[in-house]
Hints:
The chain is mainly α.
Amino acid sequence: MALHVHKDMSDALDAREIAREFVPSAGEKAFVYLYGGKGNDTLDGLRKTKFCNKVAKNSTTVEVNSLSPTTDATKYHSFRVYCQVQEWMGNWGWCLRKG
């Protein structure tokens, strides 16, 4: 699964023109893999499972930073990563012009 996830993310970041829906889905797959999920898992599902496991095992509060990011947070993070990679590759970016 790791090779498939890395290939999807690499293809998404490398593509100059890509369907808008593909960037966040590739990013979510990568995060699911990083947080130990399986092929059809979602980040929100992993987050809920991890939260429930922590609550069941501990009597202390659950630190939010110990949970996986949400699907929405990952979506916007993936778009930021895509924009940064495209700028590094010289495909597009901001430039300052006089006047």
